[in-house]
Design goal:
By secondary structure, the protein is an all-alpha fold. The chain contains four helices and no strands. Helix 1 crosses helix 4. The longest helix is centred in the last third of the chain and has 25 residues. It is globular and about 40 Å long.
Amino acid sequence: MKENRRIIVEAWLSKHRDLFNTSGLDRSLDIPLGTMQKFFKYNIRLNNKRINKAYRLIKLLGEDFKSLHEEIE
């Protein structure tokens, strides 16, 4: 995993933390419950596997938004 990916994911999640329910993120990423709460509340780093899962989810969210936007216009 590239270190840039970690920086991007952690910064994006921190910036948008109010948009997500932590247990919902855990379920969406298929990671143990409480993982995202520990990340947000105690600044516990996510392991590389979880960073990659989060990166793919964030990328998918962006692509879905873009395709819906293009569909409407």
